Amino acid sequence: MSDAAQPTDEHVPTDDDFEPIEVFPESTEMDLRPGADNCYKCSTCDTNCPVAEVDDEFPGPKFQGPEQWRLKRQDDHDIDDSVMKCSNCMRCDHACPSEVPLSQMHNTARGEYVEKQMSKRSLEYWRNRLLSNYRTMAHLGSKVPRLTNFMMGLGVTRVFNEKVLKITSEREFPAFATETFREWWDARGGYATSRERARAAREARGEKTTAETDKRIAYFHGCYSNYNTPEVGKALVRVYEHFGYEVMVPDQRCSGTPMYANGMLGDAERAAKTNVPELAAAIEEGADVIASCTSCSMSLRQEYPELFDIDGVHEVSNNTWEGLEYLRVHEDLKGELEGTTTDLPNLAYHAPCHARNQGLDGQAIEVLSAIDGVEAHDVGDSCSGISGTYGWKAENYDTSMKIGEEMFEHMEAADATHGLTECPTCSMQMEHGTGYDILHPLEILADALLDGGETQSSSGTGPA
Amino acid sequence: MATDTEVLVLGGGSTGCGIARDLAMRGLEVTLVERGNLTHGTTGRMHGLLHSGGRYAVSDQASARECIQEVDVLQDIAGHCIEMTGGLFVQRPEDSDEYFQKKLTGCRECDIPARVLSGAEARRIEPYLAKDVKRAIQVPDGAVDPFRLCVANAHDAERHGARIETHAEVVDLLREGDDIYGVTVRHDSGPGKRTHKTPGTTEDITADYVVNATGAWAGQIGAMADLEVAVRPSKGVMTIMNVRQVDTVINRCRPKGDADIIVPHETTAILGTTDEEVEDPDDYPEEQWEVDLMIATLAELVPILKEARTIRSFWGVRPLYEPPGTGTEDPTDITRDFFLLDHAERDGVGGMTSIVGGKLTTSRLMAEKISDHICDKLGHSASCDTADVPLPGSENLEALEDAMDEFGLRSPVARRSTQRLGSRSREVLQTTDPNPVICNCESVTRAEVQDAIAQSGSDLNAVRIRTRASMGNCQGGFCCQLLANELHPEYDEETARAAYDELFQERWKGERHALWGEQLSQAMLKYALHATTYNADGDPARTGTDVNFEAFDGGQTDTEAGPSGVVATDGGPRNRGGDQ
Ligand SMILES: Cc1cc2nc3c(=O)[nH]c(=O)nc-3n(C[C@H](O)[C@H](O)[C@H](O)COP(=O)(O)OP(=O)(O)OC[C@H]3O[C@@H](n4cnc5c(N)ncnc54)[C@H](O)[C@@H]3O)c2cc1C
Ligand code: SF4
Ligand code: SF4
C-alpha cells in the first residue's frame, strides 16, 4: 500500500560496480526471505526451543525465523519485540531438519529491531550494550580487580544494577582474576617461549624438532578466560605445548556472541574487523585457530560468515576448532590419557547448546573417561538457561532459572564433586543453581597429562 | 409486468462486481448471480499486475492511457487492494535497443511516468536481477489483489441495496420472442449465504435488463438464448513462489513474449504468463512443461528463481473476443480491449448486453462505460461516483498506521492483517475475545476468519479469498482443519467437514503442479498429518465404523515417567534397544 516514488524524466542513469550483498540498504539488513523457502513448517524447532518451553509469551523460532521473514516487504521495519526473548542458544538451528538459517534470521532481525525500533536513549539499550560489551567492562575491571570485585559485591551496587539497569541482583558478578591470561602470557615470554617449549616437547615425543613445523595454533581465548578464568587459558597453552604445538595468541576482541544476542550487530562487526584479519594472518603462517569457549568457536565458524562480509572470513571459519575437538582429531588423545589419573574424578558434565550445535556434545565425556577412575556424568541435553547475557537481565531471570531447573536437578542427582562444561556462562549458571565448583575439560586434561613442570599457580618468566 | 430486479448482472468477476457497484450507487436495483464464489472465473486466476500501461505503450496506446488513469483512481479508492510496488521493464543484452526506445517513447506519449535506469541502478532496486541486465525503464506498475477488489465492490453494492447471489448458476435465459427478461438459476444450497449440505433449489429471476458479464463463458450464456458470442478463450499459466524474490514488478522489455513478468504479490511472487488458445474454458490441459518453461525463461531475468521454491501453479483463461471477420491467428495479437455487445443492436434481441474482454486494471472504467449504456437503455439518469468514493476498506487509510498497536497482535501479524483489512481493521480486529492466529503462513487471526464467515457462510474457499488463509507455504496443511473448526458451533460437524473437504481439494488442485523440492516435502508432511495423524481417510465419523478403543493401552503411568508424570525435555532416561 505504499506509494512508489513516481519516476521522473530528468534522471541520467549512472553505472557503478554495485554488488548486491545486502538487499536492504543498511549493513545490518540482509534479505533472508529466500531462507524461508527451506521451511516446511514441521515445528521441530519450536519443540526444541528452551525458551518457548517455559514462556508461553514467546512465539518460538518458527515464527521468529521463517514465518516472520516471509511476511516481510522491502520497506517494512517492524520486527516483533519478542525477538529479544530469544536467548540465541541456537538449538533451533541444530534441530531443523531442513537447513533453515534460523539463528541467522534471529540475529539479523534482532539487529534490525535494535537499530530501528529500540530507543537509543532507553536504559534497556544501554544496559544491553553494557552487558554485550563485556570486554570493555572487564578490561576496566581487571585493572583494579580487587576493588571491582569488592564493588560488584556491594549491596548498593547490586541494588543499582537491579533497580536502574535491570540486571538481576540474584546473580553474583564473576570475580576478576588478579592477573589476566594475557598478562600471564606476556610475562611468560609470549610466542618465543611457547616455541621453545613446544620444540622441547616434540623432542621428548620423538617428533620433528626443526623450526619448521605445522604444529602451530592461534589461541582465541575470548574475554572470559582472559579476565575471569585465566586457568582455562593456561591449561590450553600447557596441554597444546605438551603435544608439541607452538601457541600464538593474536590480538583479539570479543567474538561477538553476546552482541548478536543483544542485536548489537554493529559492535560485533567492529570486533570482527579486528579478529578476522588477525586470525587470518595467523592462518597464513600455518596456524589453526583454537578456541576454548564453544560460543567463541561457534561464532567464528558459523555466525561470522553468515553475518559479515570481511576479507578472510571464510578462511577463519574453515580453520577454527574447539580446543578438545582439535586434539581429538589430530592426536591420539585417548592413547595419551590411558593410565593417567586426576584428583578430580567425579564430574557432572553439561554440554553447552553451542557445543551441541557444533556436534561436540559427546566428546568431553568420551575423552575424559579414558583417564583412570574418572566418572563423568552427562546431565542430559537440556539447556542451562543462561545463554550468555540473557539470564543476567532481570526480566529474564525467572525464565532462565526455569529453563535451568532440569539441569540443576540432574546435577544434584549425579554422583559428582565438580561440575564440568566448556562454556563460561553455562558454568556461571551451573554454579549459581547448584553451588558446585565448575571446571573446563581442558583443566582436567592438564591435570591428568602434566605432572610437575609448570604448576597451576606459576606465572614466572620463562619456562618453569 | 413487475420484475424481481431492475438490472440482473451475470458473473461475479471483476467486471460483474464493478457493474453491480456502479449501478447500485446510481440508485438502481441490482441483483448479481455467480455460479461459484466471487472471482470463481478468470478474475480469481489472473496475474495480479496493476498495469501502469507500460505494457501496452507500444501496441495499444488507448489501453495504455486508460491504465495509467485507472492506476491513479485505484490509489484513491482501493488502497487496501493494491500495492504500489513500482515496476521495471528490464532489457537484457540480447534484447533490442530499438524496442527499448519505442517502449520509452510510447510511455511518454501516453503520459506514463518513465525513466531509464542503468543495469546497476536497476539492480540496486532489485538485487536479485541478473548481473548482466543492460538497462531498465522504471514505471509506476503495482500489484492488485483481485479477490479483495471484487469482494469490496460486491460488499459496497450490497450496502447500496444490491442482492449478491453466489453459488447460483444460470441454467437458462428467459426469452420471450425478441426479448430477454430474466434467467433461471440453480442455487447450490438455496438462496442467501452458502451453507453446505443444504439442498439446492432453482429460481427464476426476472429483470428489466440483463448484463452478461460471464467473460470466457459469455458464449455459453448467449447460446442459451440462441445468440452467438464468439469468445476465444486463451489460457495462461502462473506459478506462485514461496517468497518475494522481488519487491518491484519485473517485466522483460521485448515485444510480446511469453513468461515475461514477475509480480510481487502479498507474501509471494507470481510468475506469468503464457497465451494459448483453448476450446473449452472449463476443460483444458494443464501441463508441467508450461511451468518449467516459464521458470526457465524468467530465470534469465532473476536467476535465483531457478533454485527457489514454488508453492503452486494455476491457469486462467482470457475471454478474448474478436469482432466477426477479424481472423487473427496468434492469440497474443488479439486486442486486450473490451467489447460491449448490445444484442438488440447486433441480433435484434432486446433486454441484454454482453461484455467480453478487458483487463482487471481498467475494470472500474469498463463498469462505468457499461453502466452508462444501461442507464441510457433504462432511461435512468444518474452520474457515476465510483472514481471518487473509496471502497469499503479503503477509507482514511492514512489513519491506520497508528491503530496497529491497538489490536494486541504481534507486529508482523498486525501489519499483514491491516494491509488486508484496510480501514475495516478496527471493526474486525478490535475484540475482547482471544484472537489467536489461525493461519500462520499468512498471519490470519480468528477475528478475521470470523468476519469472513459472517460474510460468506460455511464456504471456506470464500473465507480463503477474503483472508488469504491457507494460501501460504503450507497450503492449508496446518490450517484447513482449524478453519473448519471456526465454523462450529454455528454450523454442525457435517457441514464443517464438507467445507473442509472442499477447501482441501481446492488447495490440492494447484499444489500438484509444484511437487518437487521443498514443496514436495511440504506435501508429504501435509499428507502425513491429514491422512495419518488425523486419519482423514479412515475417520470413523466419516466411514461410520466404530472405534476400537480396546486397541489402545492405558498410556504411560506416573512411575514410568518419573516425578508426577512430567516427561523430561530430553525424553527422560534413554531406553536403548527398546522398541519405542
Ligand atoms: C492468465 C491471465 C492473466 C491476467 N493478468 C492480468 C493482469 O495481470 N492484470 C490485469 O489487469 N488483467 C489481467 N488479466 C485479465 C483479467 O483477469 C480479466 O480481464 C478479468 O479478470 C475478467 O473479469 P470478468 O469479470 O470479465 O471475467 P470472470 O472473472 O471470468 O468472471 C466471469 C464470471 O462468470 C461466472 N459464470 C460463468 N458461467 C456462469 C453461469 N452459467 N452462471 C453464473 N455465473 C457464471 C464465472 O464463474 C465467473 O466468475 C489476466 C487474464 C488472464 C487469463
Ligand atoms: S524445524 Fe526447520 S523446517 Fe521445521 S518448522 Fe522449524 S524452521 Fe521450519
Ligand atoms: S536460538 Fe534458542 S531461544 Fe532462540 S529461538 Fe532458537 S531455540 Fe529458541
Q: Which residues of chain A form runs of ≥5 with pLDDT under 50?
A: 1-9, 16-28, 452-464
Structural class of chain B: alpha+beta
Percent in strands of chain A: 5-15%
Shape of chain B: globular
Count of helical regions of chain A? 24
Bound molecules: flavin-adenine dinucleotide, iron/sulfur cluster
Poorly predicted segments of chain B = 561-580
Number of structural units classed as domains of chain B:
3
State the secondary-structure class of chain A: alpha/beta
Count all strands of chain B and give the number: 22
Task: Look at the structure and give the mean pLDDT of chain A.
Answer: 85
Corresponding CATH architecture of the largest domain in chain B = 3-Layer(bba) Sandwich
Terminal Cα span of chain A = 72 Å
**Inertia-based shape of chain A:** globular
Most extensive protein-chain contact, per-chain counts: A-B, 54 and 60 residues
Spatial separation of the terminal alpha carbons of chain B? 77 Å
- Rounded to the nearest angstrom, the radius of gyration of chain A is 23 Å
Can you tell me the number of structural domains of chain A? 4
CATH topology of the largest domain in chain B: FAD/NAD(P)-binding domain
What Rg of chain B do the Cα atoms give?
A: 26 Å
The count of β-strands of chain A is 8
